[in-house]
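Task card 7
Instruction: Convert sequence to structure tokens.
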Amino acid sequence: MSSEHAKQPAVTRSQKKVRSLELDKGSLENAITDLEARLRRSNLRLVGLPEGREGSDACSFLEKWIPETLGMARQITLERAHRVGARRDASAPPRVLIMKFLNDREKTAVMQASRNKEIIVGEHKVRFYPDLAAGVLKQRKQFDSVRQLLRKMDIRHGMLVPARLVLTHKNKTHTFVCPSEAESFVRSIQDDKDSGGRG
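Output:
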């Protein structure tokens, strides 16, 4: 019995140490995700552009093709551009092309210009996406169920970089970094509507 009591403080110390290590690990993962997100901030992913269309100089091709295709008056300057992954056979979808802009404002202008434009090259639909870190994608995925609810309720919403949900309700903008807080808020709107509240 006394030996059991003697073991208790050691077990408690071990549990505290494990909790502390878990917190440290979480902090390090967040720091790495944040750093990776900052490094990719000036990047865009181009999905669907047929293989080889860019020729041997992807930067020069894209600097000309993007403004022409999107009807932009301004020119863009890219630091670098390349396909991701090994070349695949002809039947596979085109590899993603990642481009790094010299100027963040130009990247934002391209995203805005491409937002409501359908781009078809050959038989492929071409789209621009932010180049998000794996950790950020994982964080964003945690909002999927809330976003599904918002779509059903026809509530305007979107995601801000890196992983924040923004929604508009009763002409007021709400921003969430925590999926559970967002879900509680959306459920309260739903409950209000179900009980006949005006909103």
